[in-house]
Amino acid sequence: MANHDIDITVQGGTVHALVGENGAGKSTLMKILYGMQRPDEGTITIAGEQVTLGSPGDAIERGIGMVHQHFMLADNLTVQENVVLGAERLHGIGAAASRRITEISETYGLGARPGALVEDLGVADRQRVEILKVLYRGARTLILDEPTAVLVPQEVDALFDNLRDLKAEGLTVLFISHKLGEVLSVADDITVIRRGTTVASVRPADTTAKQLAELMVGSELPSPETRESTVTDIPMLAVDDLHLSAVDSSGDVRTVLDGVSFTVHKGEVLGVAGVEGNGQAELVESVMGMRTTDGGSVTLDGADISARSTRKRREEGIGYIPEDRHRHGLLLDAPLWENRMLGHVTEPPNSRGQILDPKAARTDTERIVADYDVRTPGIEVTAASLSGGNQQKLIVGREMSHQPKLLIAAHPTRGVDVGAQAQIWDQIREARREGLAVLLISADLDELIGLSDTLRVMYRGRLVADADPATITPEELGSAMTGAAGGHLEHESGDTGALEDTDSTPEDGATPDTDSTPEDGGDHR
Amino acid sequence: MKKLDKNKLALAIAAPLLAVVAAVLITSLIILATGDDPLLAYQVMLEFGSKSDSQVWIIDKSITYYLSALAVAIGFRMNLFNIGVDGQYRIAAFFAAVVGGALTLPGFLQIPVIILVAMTVGALWAGIAGLLKVTRGVSEVITTIMLNFTAGSLIGYFLQEGRLAEKDGNIFHTPNIPESSHFFTFPTTPDPVDGFIVIAVLVGAVYWFVLNRTRFGFDLRAVGSSQSAAEASGVSVKRMVLTSMVLSGAAAGLVGMPTLLGDSYNYGNDFPTGIGFTGIALALLGRNHAVGMAFAALLWGFLDRTGSQLEIEGFAQEIVEVMKGVIVLSVVIAYELVRRYGLRKQQREVGAELAAQSAGDGTNDKAGVSA
């Protein structure tokens, strides 16, 4: 059951935010409001009139429009063609449509160029085209599903200006997010949703981000904080002067990684912060051997693995929790026990020599399902039929089952419900106590700060800053992520700016103070 | 667990059943539309097809078909569309015939040599497409189609008097292979069954074992299921593409062998063509499954055999080809429908299981919104 007892009242001409953890049921509610899913019970009233929304068509007719998180645009068509597609009957496809688009664009400050090709537009512009599409169809209520997830901070500000313009023109905006800072800055009303039900309605003026967070997750606020330090001075992963360039969609060669160097020690979690798209994904893929770098070396446990294949690196003891589990972590059509073999097919219990051992793999999958609390009726079901959180638990269980020396965790709790999130944090912490080195990439700053022993900030392919997670705040980290600050970040030290030149940042810049507590002598391995 | 398995079995039976019912229904309508009696047609087919000489004919024919289906299926299992099995088996059979006609070794040596030459030539020919795909990114669909024509032209060039062929009436063919190199047969009556059936069964078994029970097979299937996930898991996708293309070509090399070693004993311009394309249909029909494709090959042999009889009995001669098309379409559509249904059902079951586990606060959905 995704939703029950949802009560939400949205005033016309306001920006209403709907906040909740991943998996709290926000998307289900949106689908109901947009007619994509029918409620089993309950009513929807628009402007005093009770309505039944059987399809998105019904919703559009009632003036409700939706801007999806993943854009639904045809890249090879122009802005105008995308906007009129499916709404040809309104103003035709010619000059009248063009005029109408320009008119809407000017009214709400969307700055759209009807003739531009969508493939030439950036993410923020594409989002505006999506909004334009909805307005063109006459929407008076806009639903935006996590609109800021794909934007950099400056673009977020621009979007919020647009939303305020919409509001000023009397339109209603329903805004879904789990980023509390944003919600507080733009919303007039906030509804909190938890485990499929509405738990509170508040006004931004009467609340704080912390209170909202507590409402979102319930009484116990799970904290990713790691208590005692387990960092040793034995280097496990050393990345030295990594360079990588790639050809982007317009055919230009772009530097993706530029002189990236860092060391992760046994028992240490090194967190890399950064706005998405600044090279974190490429860094991970380079360390995994999925990309051929232009220069630099990767050393694992004293052995240079720069020239080794991905499979060899995995056999050497790298565990990998990929950013996109559907693309890189699972065979969606395959049963769970075959997914248990993926990535470790050369290792026991999955195979003996060249021959697979399905019996042992099945038995071990049963164990992972039990130990890691993967909620499934059995191991013969396909990976696709599990929920995101359970898929992630299976992946974590699989990677941990091979006693990795190094775990690369990219957004390990993305799209995972609160319970599974706490569980995954616990597992990472426990393995770290036993000497695991972790390279953690995350967009969740609280997760990064709470879990990491050392923090680095990545900006435009470079590690531009480092910080001590014990003292740094998300805000300070955030400013470095936009490139506004660099060097060693210190909390409340008067200036959060560059204290030292970024290039001269020592290879393990922020580790000395955490290194100095190797009381457990390091490893039990 | 048990319940899921039972569902799985029911679904596995549902798909072919649905396909057969749909195919029979549609074919009957078409026969009716041509003004004939569909029941009579089926009766003619069953009666003629079950005669003992028909049985032998069907089995012999299906050996070749089955090998072709296997060759195609190797590519299909990793999303490679090897349309070039046709060219691969022809050029392989041609050079095998040339080598076989030139040598006079004892049979136990010469037969393996001929087969090995065929597999090597097939592998090399398919390898060209594989190499172009991994080095230059050229779609294997394009290259294998073009290589089919190239193979045809190459054979045409060599298949002339004074080059590698001799003239026999109005047919050019390679020198006959010696009698010692004729493949053994099972002495069944009225006609013997080709001994190559042993090889076909063996190749089918190896196909099943390698795909389902070896690391290599797992990697291959992983690439077919999700290239990006396979890459992240440590499979070298490029090497896999090349390897499976080569294996597919080697299997294709076997396709012409039953004919060469058991029937024609040479490669002439009357050597059967088009079997590679039949293989594509059969791989689809048999769902790339070792046993499924065997049934598909037998069915095709049956249709081939009884189709000519239908013509003699006064039915439209195209009716069997129409049947074949209808069957392939019915199977593909039925399997896809059942697959989607099964997936949805499974998702519902997983959802129900979870709801049961976390039962407690589950009240009814209620959504009240006003704007």
Automatic annotation (TrEMBL), chain B:
Its main location: membrane. The chain crosses the membrane at residues 9-35, 55-76, 88-105, 111-132, 141-159, 193-211, 240-260, 280-303. It is found in: Cell membrane. One of its GO terms (cellular component) is plasma membrane. CDD domains: TM_PBP1_transp_TpRbsC_like. One of its GO terms (molecular function) is transmembrane transporter activity. Keywords: Cell membrane, Membrane, Transmembrane, Transmembrane helix. The keyword Transmembrane applies. Pfam families: BPD_transp_2. It comes from the Bacteria. It is a multi-pass membrane protein. InterPro entries: ABC_transp_permease (IPR001851). This is Sugar ABC transporter permease. It comes from Streptomyces oceani.
